[in-house]
Prior knowledge:
Blueprint: H1 14-61, H2 85-94, H3 100-117, H4 128-131, H5 146-151, H6 161-222, H7 226-230, E1 241-247, H8 277-289, E2 297-300, H9 304-313, E3 321-323, H10 343-349, H11 377-390, E4 395-399, H12 401-412, E5 423-430, E6 433-441, E7 454-462, E8 467-477, H13 480-483
Parallel strand pairs: 1-4, 2-3, 2-4
Antiparallel strand pairs: 1-5, 5-6, 7-8
Helix pairs in contact: 8-9, 11-12
Amino acid sequence: MNILPKKKWHVRTKENIARVRRDEAKAAEEEQRRLDRAITAENERRLEALRAQAAKRDADLEPFALRASSDTTLSTSTGHVNLFQDLEQAERQNFGRGNKEYEEEKRKEQAEYDSKLGIQKAFAEGTKELNKEQEWYARITRPVAKDENKVKSNVPTAPISSTATSIANKNEEIREKHSKKKRKRHRKSSSSESEDSSEMEIEKRNRLAALREERLIRERAEAGDSCPADNTCGGKMSYPRTIWVVRHAEREDNINRKWRSLPGGSELASDNSMLSERGRTQAKECAVRFSKVNLSHVFASPYDRTIETASIIVADKGLLVKPEPGLCEGLYMCEKPPGFWEPEKLKEKFPLVDTDYISVFSKHTLPKEGFGDDACIPRVRTTLNRITEKYDGDIMLVSHGAPIGAIHEIWMGDFKYVGQATVTKFIEIEKGKIRMEFSSDASHLSDKRNLRPWNSLYSLELTTMSHRFVRYDRIVAITNDANK
């Protein structure tokens, strides 16, 4: 039995334990009071420093300050005294200026990055020539010997910069000589190129002159003995008469993007696609429709697809197809110059081409046109006037979507798109007076699907500097039922 805890002198008695705990609590309280006094003293010291700083600022600003009235309050809401007003003012002064050190660091990083990529690097960047700084030796004065001072006392000392300047002048002369030689060689090469271009221009002018001369000869021949028999000299016309307008049949490039890999496709230009098999079937169905229609003249755009469509239609009529570039596609969609063949080359491929026909335009005399399908209207108007004034009888025009839309605009005042291999009928009642019987008729076609009629609206904005064609985003498809 342990009786030691019951002895008065033992340290682990209840009284001793309670006494120790009271002493520890008292010591902790004393330590806390000492710490509070230290914190309070530090706060008071800081407040005194801030008050002294504020008093100094007020003393400096007192001559410029407005006198406050007796009812002035520190704050209308809380009465708070802003002890950090100077810091806030400094922040407001620097607001929006940015961190200059940070910006300079970012600029250097960006410059280093651009330099590694090799972009945005100015010529001679960072050199003294660009910064217009003198070399160190140019700022040194040449020392003068004593004897030289005695002999030439009145001559001022010459700086080393004169020597450097003379060397720089010599280098500049050498560079100027090299640049003169280079300019001379460039003039020679440019003169040779200009000679080539001038030869091409002369050849083009000669070709155009030959075409004009040929046109004049043929027109004089037509105005002679052949005019009364053929009635194509612009004499008295018989009215009313019918003008048929047919759009070419389906193109091969409508269904096959690799059409130039087909036999004969590599010889054609990118804008001169031939007819597809379905297109040839459509052209034959057009021929059946016109089998009992009397025609006096057939005009077609000189592209392969229109010449072939017209040749199939008039195959059994004993007529020749007159290739007319004035009826070709909108020039903004064609190559420059357009990729159709000359009449002699066309006749080798299509025997029914009339090479004696004098066209209104040629490949090299087509006028310049802007962007948009309606840009071809002036050209088509000129072509229609020449054809209708010169050729009598019923006429057929085989053309493309944009020129046929232009024909509708010229005669009916409404730019209208028609489907492929469809027929439009106009009646010329008297000179200059035309009415439309029907438009884009596809009743003769066995397959009326996907004839590709479409409507794209363009508007012409007149500005003080130029004419701009603006195409609207709205594109409306015309259904086959609406075309009937």
